[in-house]
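Example 3.2
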Amino acid sequence: MRLNFWTLFISAVLLIDDHVAFGGINAWTPIGPDGGFVLALAVHPETPTTVYAGTQNGGVFKTLNGANSWRGSRGLPDAAVNALAVDPVTPTTVYAGTEDGVFKSVDGGGSWASANSGLPFAPTVAAVVIDPLTPTTLFAGVFSFSVFGGVFKSTDGGSSWTAVNSGLTNQAVVALVIDPKMPTTLYAGTSDSVSGGGGVFKTTDSGTSWHLVNAGLTNISLNDLAVDPVTPTIVYAATDGGMFKSTNGGALWTPINAGLQGLSLFCIAIDPVTPTTLYAGTNNTVFKSIDGGGSWSVSGTGLPIPVFVLAIDPATTSTLYAGAITSRFSEGVFKSTDGGESWRAMNAGLASLRDRVVAIDPGDPATIYSAANNFAGIFKTTNGGESWTPSDDGLPSTVVSSVVIDPVTPTTVYAGLPGDGVFKSTDAGVSWHVANFGFNGEGVSVLAIDPVTPTTLYAGISNFIIGVFKSTDGGISWSALDNARFGVVETLAIDPTTPSILYAGTSGGNGGVFKSTDSGVSWTAASTGLPNPLEIGRLTVNILVIDPLDSSTLYVGTSAGLFKSTDAGALWRVANVGLPDRVGILALAIDPVTPATLYAGTASRGVFKSADGGLSWSAVNTNLTSLTILTLAISPSTRTAIYAGTEAGSVFAMTPATSCVATGSRELSGLVTTRPHRTPTANVGITITGPGGCQDTTFTTTDGDYAFGGLSKGTYTVTADRDGCVFRRSTRTLKFRKADRLANFRGICTD
């Protein structure tokens, strides 16, 4: 269901004071861990303390204070941002080149809209440049190993694009620069990984025709290009085999690698005031030249390796920003204020990790483990997300698929690694040791721990032949369950009251649910009612959760939607009302005390909440900038916070709204009709927000009516919403004193 402006507004203004600085009731706040792979940087031309950072997963982040703090933006897909360009005349206009095309913002990065008309389908845009004299003219470099790449031009600010590839025999464009004084001249750098060879192409007629300018260029695998802003016939090329310089507009190139021998060059930045001062990002930190590339020296104290992108403050050129793409805690944005002599990380709020694990200490809800599987490792917070520290000493890899905590001894923690099996910590994540005896190099996709006997664990394997391993001695030894060879295991769930009953959700051609009633000795299929993978091509059961008070009630999130069983998996029924069509469910979390309340994380539409055991759902996405949800977790003891691990924004936290129902004796009801004949209209979402920020959502019946019972006195806001419908008064405010109230809605629907 789409929540309209008023619903979002109401949720956003109900602020609370909590241990974590959450955005409010039913409003999300990013809590870290901070950092991520930074691929693009752009500095505001007039206010250089405003900087934009494009990340591998998390869209675009913006700082207004010189990188002291960052904030994410909405409207971008969870796709790598490879390039950023700020309009030099109207700097509130910003363009982002992503792996899903070009996006444009006209409000300084606050919101984004696709600007792909005329571009190939889902293009990987590696570069965007703006004509400095006519900034509605843009050029985009599209990387493709086919005829769908090359250079595209727009003369209307990105509203439409046309290919300008005549003479461009290699269309795997990775870099694009424009002559600042003669903007009809551009250079395109290409990869040599396709037929036709790579190198540098040049146009002097705004892309109408291109010609190869490779003379002297002994390495033709380009990564970046830069034009001298004062003498634009001087051009630099960064390649996999070093740095090259041309002083005649690309007619002839000369290697300038004194001090750079053996390095791959990823990026170049030229001091706009003193253009003989250059900076090069390499696979081994940053190097600096003060003689136009004649010699280079290390300029990377405090920087990780490698450095993928550099940007210079145009007003104070001793201030630089670097984007790092290495792993663990040394990734993100780094800043130098002394011309590159020293650097420090500046990532507060820049949370763009791909976080697929959130594990909450059952005895201390402020202690949380987070694991990102884009080479970031495990992080731990002991203060509810206010700060995080790495927690992976002893792990052989920073790619982690699962973390489980011993419910009896929470200092004992287990980690599953996709390529390295199981590791165990007995000191709350300070150190880890291998717990793999019995494994044969299999990768672990998921772990589950017996809630009654926590020395018993199960490991789901990413090998489609093996299935499940089991340990009964706290991970000291493992054995394969011979009858569990039913495919890649994506999720495991143990019955909280009868731990000999467990469920496995699998993927692929044999995707479905499997059940064991004898601690994994034998398994039977329990997929009746789920889509047949042979009929739909593939089914992935991503997550299975069990009602903690009624273990015969189960929910599964699949690639085909959400399903519910009330008979311990014997039969499944669709439970998708209010959820978006054809969107996979990747995560589920169930309230441990009020299990009729549960949350679903989707593949691209954010988080949805149900207060009626899955009968109906409504979106709860206020302030959520990454809408692909990989995991959800509810604080087991306090239930005051729900956490979402996202594809592109690390971990978000939200304080759920309490229910307005069952707090009094009054009833709010109504009828929804639509033209032309005032027809009662079903499946209209009705959301009420009442005293103290309580909130509930229901849907109209086939008779068009709805009702909320057991309400207390006070003021309520009532909102009607349904895709394809417009209501004359979609939001109404009512005051309850003694009598019940009616709130009818009238509108028109296009479907």
